[in-house]
Design a protein that fits this description.
This protein is α/β, with parallel strands linked by helices and 172 residues long. It has a single domain, classed as YbaK/aminoacyl-tRNA synthetase-associated domain (YbaK protein). Helix content is 30%, strand content 24%. Strands 1, 2, 3, 4, 5, 6, 7 and 8 form an eight-stranded mixed β-sheet that branches.
Amino acid sequence: MAMTPDALLAFLEANGIEATTYSHPPLHTVAESKELRGEIPGAHTKNLFLRDSKKTYFLVTIEEETPVDLKALREKIGARGGLSFGSAEALYEKLGVLPGAVTLLAAANDPHHQVVVAIDEALLAAELVNCHPLTNSQTTALTPDALLRFLAVTGHEPVRISLKPQEEEAGP
């Protein structure tokens, strides 16, 4: 059975993972999030629930403004074959959340590690990372260290990726 948002927040507290949670109207898209979330500090995420042609599932979390090329992403996350978006049914079955509430914190609902978690290095460089706590009517802010501790406690070793364009990675 999937954790509730309250159970997730209690899980964070019980594991000594500091987080601050804000309530707001339900947010379904990045555009809605920008408009309605207010002044919540830190990096805001975009989450992709994907599957490859071998039926391996991936939860990819990136900074909300980062463009995504699924073909380029495939190699970075270790996917085999083409990538496509996972179905709403698979999302609920694997991570216990509905579309619009996809979040890195849903790893708490994957005790059998059926989903590969990938996170963009840009988020790990931020002061705070904002994630939905299994509901799109709240946002939970964690430091990158706290987020990595959460993933470790849930048994998920994230694949760290960089989606910066090649020119930015090379520098001036």
